[in-house]
Design a protein that fits this description.
The protein is of the alpha/beta class. The chain is built from 18 helices and 12 strands. Strands 5, 6, 7, 8, 9, 10, 11 and 12 form an 8-stranded mixed sheet that branches. A hairpin with a 6-residue loop joins strand 2 and strand 3. The mean pLDDT is 93.
């Protein structure tokens, strides 16, 4: 998609949808790239439609179905233009006539079927009735909450109908904006006082001792001048750093560190008295990490541009955090497009890559040291199965139950997320935060 010529928002949104759905581009990154093309005040409108269509794609297609004989034969722009128009009609307070007229004008500019777009959207406005849902619970939930059928079926087997529906519902909500206070420069109490003085409604996180939730996410723009005092980070991700239980004086590796949320948190937890290496294979992402280090005024973290599978024996650590690249199925609230990218087959492929990275970085752990494997996914293939295969191959490693952590405070914060096997597991519908899996392991001394 070209980004050098200004394009009106309603024309641009169908193009962005194509980039996401056909080319697997990130909607967040795409919006950042086009921000210079359009008036800044239009960005919230564009974001609402783009993310709204992604959250409700299957439902929108189901509503459009009765008016389209062969949707599969429509060109991509026309189909996505219809989706964007239908979203405005079904979910937004945009006047229906405006949604129809703007969609038709967009089609005249970039598409090939303005008459079709006009007829379909006007029929949707006029009839305003839902076609009958399929009787089976799996297909019904798949349509109503726009989750692929394979994913709905696996969650039904695991959680049952009631809990699955709660999970699907929360995945389609806009997540809260959660901050982690930079404890090197302020306290949660002092920061809350600043927010109160500015009239910004907020509350403390329920478990993380450093978290604050903004009641109105848009208020983030009002505290830009306080940027060095906080980091935007979900509560579950904050708890993962507590699970590693780092101490001052240790040599620590954050193996897939960018953009730096956990590396900077580890620096805060060790009051900048640990030697922390933040490694990442992506130079551009490492640049963002360095910007965050500068903004938070953290000096104990050393960025390293490298594929962590290639770390040599000169790299030896007391603690290792591996937040492995994964399917991200635990953060669908933030990234609604993720649900359309994966199936059972490529989920297994992701798990293979995670095991490979875990095996490689574990060899850099000193005897008696601890490694934390984490993924922002709660799928068993990426969590317990990876750990089971790793332990079968590496008998000198063993699980550290969360209940055995040395810090009483950390144990108390983490206890609600402890599984029967001692792992960490957060679930969006149960805990109101991102879905994460974590397993803490220790390497036996004497090797």
């Amino acid at each position: 998609m070209k980004t050098d010529v200004p394009t009106p928002p309603r024309i641009l949104v169908p193009l962005l949808l194509e980039e996401v759905l056909r080319k697997n581009h990130s909607p967040k990154v795409l919006l950042q790239r086009v921000s210079s093309e359009t008036v800044r005040k239009e960005l919230p409108f564009m974001r609402e439609i783009l993310y709204g269509v992604l959250r409700n794609l299957l439902y929108i297609d189901w509503r459009l179905g009765p008016y389209l004989r062969r949707p599969g034969r429509l060109n991509s722009y026309t189909l996505n233009n219809l989706r964007a128009g239908a979203y405005q009609i079904l979910f937004m307070r945009v006047p229906e006539w405006a949604a129809v007229n703007e969609s038709v004008e967009a089609e005249k500019t970039k598409g090939k079927h303005p008459e079709l777009v006009n007829a379909v959207l006007r029929s949707m406005v006029r009839e305003a009735s839902e076609p009958p849902l399929p009787p089976s619970i799996d297909r019904k939930l798949s349509i109503l909450y726009s989750h692929p059928l394979w994913l709905v079926r696996r969650w039904l087997r695991r959680f049952g109908p009631s809990e699955t529906e709660k999970l699907l519902q929360i995945n389609n909500t806009i997540p809260p904006l959660t901050l982690r206070i930079n404890s090197l420069r302020t306290t949660r109490e002092d920061f809350r006082e600043m927010l109160s003085e500015m009239g910004i409604p907020h509350r403390e996180t329920s478990r993380s001792p450093a978290g604050i939730i903004l009641e109105r996410p848009d208020d983030i723009t009002r505290i830009n001048d306080l940027g060095g005092l906080f980091y935007i980070q979900d509560e579950a991700a904050q708890l993962i750093s507590l699970l590693l239980d780092p101490s001052p004086g240790e040599r620590i590796l954050d193996a897939c560190a960018a953009p730096g949320g956990k590396a900077t948190h580890l620096a805060e937890l060790t009051i900048e008295k640990a030697d922390i290496v933040a490694a990442d294979i992506r130079p551009e992402r490492l640049g963002i990490l360095m910007e965050n280090l500068s903004r938070l005024d953290i000096g104990s973290v050393r960025p390293l541009s490298i594929d962590v599978r290639e770390l040599g024996p000169e790299h030896s650590y007391d603690r290792i955090l591996l937040d492995a690249p994964c399917s991200s199925l635990g953060v669908i609230r933030k990234n609604p497009d993720v649900r359309y990218r994966y199936n059972r087959k490529n989920l297994l492929k992701a798990a293979e890559a995670e095991l490979e990275i875990l095996q490689a970085v574990s060899e850099r752990l000193r005897p008696g040291g601890r490694i934390l494997y984490a993924v922002c996914s709660f799928e068993p293939e990426e969590g317990e199965e990876v750990i089971r295969k790793f332990l079968n191959k590496n008998p000198d490693f063993y699980i550290i139950d969360m209940a055995e952590l040395s810090g009483t405070e950390s144990r108390n914060f983490l206890e609600p997320f402890r599984t029967e096997k001692g792992f960490f597991l957060s679930l969006p519908h149960r805990h109101g935060m991102d879905g994460f899996f974590g397993a803490l392991m220790e390497r036996k001394a004497g090797r």
